Amino acid sequence: MNERVREKLERLPRAPGVYVMRAAGGSTLYVGKASDLRSRVRSYFTPGTADARFFVSRLAADLDDLETIVTADEREALLLENSLIKQLRPRYNVRLRDDKDYLSIRLDERPPWPRLELVRRPQPDGARYFGPFANARAAREAVRVVQRLFRLRPCRDSVFRGRSRPCLLHQLGRCDGPCVLPVDPAAYRTAVRRAAALLEGRRDSVLAELRDEMKSAAAALDFERAARLRDQLAAVDRAAWGEPQRVVEVSDVDRDVVGLHRDGPVALAVVLEVRAGRLVAVRDYPLADLDLPDPELLAGLLAQRYAAAATPPDEILLPFPAPASDVLEAFLSARRGRRVRVLVPRRGRGRRLLALARDNAEQRFLLDARDRQSAAAQVEALGRALHLRRPPRTIECVDVSHWGGEAGTTVAAIAAMLDGRLDKSRYRRFRLRGDHRGDDYAAMREVLLRRFERARSGDPRWTAPDLLVVDGGRGQLAVARAVLADLGIPDVALAAIAKPHDPPDDRPAPSETTAPSSPEAAAVLDAVYLAGRKNPLRLRPGSPALRLLARLRDETHRLAVSFQGSARRKHRLTDRLADIPGIGPATRRRLLRAFGSVARLARASADEIAAVEGVTAAQARAVARELARGPGPDEPPP
Ligand code: SF4
Questions:
Q1: What is the pLDDT of residues 518-528, one digit of tens each?
Q2: Which of 30, 177, 390, 536 supports an S-S bond with 92, CB 3.0-4.6 Å?
């Protein structure tokens, strides 16, 4: 398990919600819901967990990142979980779960004789929906009990319309037979209203109403009716099918709901993306060094969010009015090509969604604040541990990756941190040009020369970091030192972090202050080499400084490996193109000029390839056939 996941596990909220587990590269492993996110998610990693599902034992190794979304209650979590499973197609959920929706109860009150029915997919059709029920049996039981209690007709519309006399249910006393008998429509409507109230969980108000009516009937000496109401009262009191159901909003209106939590100059905004009445995603926007009032802050956030990639939905719900909201609406409508409304709901479902957005903003802000505090403490600790003059605000780590020892198959990656947190805007990847053939030092030299020549040229996107960490030992450190000296770049502190499996003779005994407390701890110690110091440091396992370094090194390694994978795929395709009989260098150049890359060429059809000037139909078929074969067997591991 990597450092990021370990830290997130320590800070999970005690609240209902949904968790999303991701593998390296961003693919989704599993989506689940919980009434208490903290205890549920941590239970996966508790030794001796009773959860025997096959993937649980592999999670610690496969899991690369974890996201949680707080919801108002467990039912909201159920809906969100269901939406996210469909949207993200998690590897383990797909195999384990039925892909159907949960059951809901539909009640359309517009026809003269409404009935209850069970449905799997609520529609924006004007009917009311109750649920969803996680348990299908509970849903069926709820319909059965409520139908009987209020004598609502259970028959389908087609049966209802075709009757010439009441069915057996009338004789059994379960239905008044509105299909043909003169039933009082007002009384039936009252029964429907009470049925809906009971399904919503407003049992007390239904009981109070029935009690009042029973007393009135008794006072009017209508004892038969009073007795019937007494029985109904007792039955409502006994009725049970699980938790009360909330009314589901089914709508074809798409909404973004904005929540904000702020503490002085630091804030965090979230946007809940509600599509067709369902919460499908939560995006967060940490904001720092703020000098703006909240309304202007939100207006700026919206302008930036929708000016970039996101398409505005039908409605945007804000917790307070934005300045010049008519201008904002006009901008968003123009961006979308249809009207977009910016609203500040005061009641109803909109208000509840705003409360949910606010809760998520607060939750994420607190996590973020703890993260910032812990990151700042780790940076301080690292500065002290490495004997630096000041804590390193910017850190970069370099990793080189080879495979197969062939020329042109070496790549390198640089991951970066700002104030102890990963800073993706400074990530860099390099396809190395030299023929290094597994020569780590030469590869390291090339990547560092290319990276720091840009720093020396004054390019602001390539400013030198406070601390440069190289993945390796004394040799890599010496290369880095020489490159910086050659380029005349001062003020960059240097460290090399050697993996635990590096040769033991390269690793002296730990000092007393950092001595491992057990043989297992000794086995996983990393050695950190510093320029000008003969012996490496041994940072205590779990110490803030080592956690920071380990996280950055893990991230750099992940970046290098994923880049290596894409470079390898491209390399294989390029090789394959070069090997196709009848496709010479001139044709290859023509094809690559027309399609831009060999990957795009591989996705083209034979007809599209044949459309390139100078390429014959036979050549096009050969290229399409050869490149469409899919990737070849994996190259030997590096
Ligand atoms: S009596 Fe009529 S309305 Fe009642 S269930 Fe039978 S067919 Fe339907």
A1: 333 334 456 88
A2: 30
